Amino acid sequence: MRIWMDGAFDMMHYGHMNAFRQARALGNNYTMLVGHAV
User: Fold this and answer.
1) How far apart are CA 14 and CA 36, in angstroms?
2) CB 23 within 8 A of CB 5
3) pLDDT digits (tens, 9 = 90+) for 3-23
């Protein structure tokens, strides 16, 4: 299963980390893609 999360995570906080934990709990094979816009 592939999970897609997008958003503006400029100021990381507990809610963001909780969302990442929940996405990771859905499967054991995951990839994180990080981008930066200037």
Assistant:
1) 21
2) yes
3) 788 788 778 889 888 988 888
